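User: I'm preparing a small set of examples for a lab meeting where we compare how different chains pack in three dimensions. I only have the primary sequence for this one, and I'd like the structure in token form so I can line it up with the others. Please keep the answer compact; I'll paste it straight into my notes.
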Amino acid sequence: MKNIIKGLSKWLLFVILFSPILGAAQEKEVFKPVIKWNLSGQIWLRYSDLNEGSEINGEPTASYTDISIRRLRIPISSQVTPKVFLYSIIGGNNYNMKNTEMKIGILDLYAEYSFAKYLEVGLGKSGWQGLNRWNIRSSSSLMGLDSPLFSLNTVEKNDDLGRQYGVWFKGQVGKFDYRLTFNKPDIVTTAPNGAIDFANNRPRIKTSSYVKYQFFEHESNKSAYQVGTYMQNKKVFNIGAGFQYQEDAMSNGDAADENTEFYDMNHWAVDSFLNLPLANDDAITAYLGYYYYGFGQGYLRNVGANNITSGGGDFNGAGVAFPMIGTGGSIYMQFGYAFEKTKVLGEDMIIQPNISIQHSNWDSLEDNMTVYDFNVNFMINGKHSNKISLGYQYRPLFDENTLKQKDAKGMAVLQYQLALK
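Assistant: Understood. Below is the structure token output for the 421-residue chain.
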């Protein structure tokens, strides 16, 4: 793996130094930069059956209804010159009764220089990384109620909501679209205590890549964040493959202890994505991917989206958490059907029922872990910018002693997504 990475780095350096595009004449016309921005947000009304032992403000609670802001995004971008592009996102996640301070941070802030369509170089803090389609997706154009969070395999461990500081190379060559990234993960301050977890050492460079082949219409690579569904607007079929690698990313103890063992993080994935408008003005969106996560033997992490609880008396932990991310293989699939635009209560609307399934064979569990997400989107005027979604997640519960599935619980969410441009 190290030799492959060194070879790719030398190849990219050669292309940059000797690209004939560098000598091309600049445009004679006066270029006028334009600043683009918008604001988008997702508001949740949720009912949750909580995991055993869950508490809210110290009080045992079996089920609960809450209202929250799942995401807030303010993207700002500008094509400063014909070659230089600036991009930023201000925002945050999970504004709820537990996280009452509306802290808004800089999620993305970077610059890109375009040598040609086949070679663009970026630098800064961003979501640019490799491995698969869904760890670089747009939250504002999701088909499912929520993003496949397991694809953000280091989220809030050594990154900021999936973002890291780094440099990347990207481009499109014929039907191929590629990206190669070199990121510096955030420093981990908490030492693992016996079990394998993220190491509190000096962060090594995280190298990743994703390459896809586009059979029909090409997707834009202007932004890192891939579209979840185009509905009737685009005919797309892609297949892709990628990897992530970080030396000594994991350990079983304090980095200062000479007896601590370190493990490389080594992931790979293959996937496919289809968005197909039909002759009857309906449309299909489908995704299928296989992921292998290599964190080190036995690594497993319970994650619950927008969790407002504490405590937890069983393996899953508190609230709506389940064994989402770990060492082992996963199959993830999505399928949605968008009906042609029709009138509903006097409004033009596209209705899109869809289902998502994560099926994981984590090496720490005795049984496979399968989560089902059912959802229906009601897109007013046929757009993501004014969308109502009704979703239900069915998650498994695992016994702390046997590590076998013993039960399952559900979570229902009514979401309203808006965007102001």
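A couple of notes for your slides: Residues 48-69+126-420 form a domain with the Porin fold (CATH 2.40.160). DSSP finds one helix and 24 strands in the chain.

User: Perfect, thanks.
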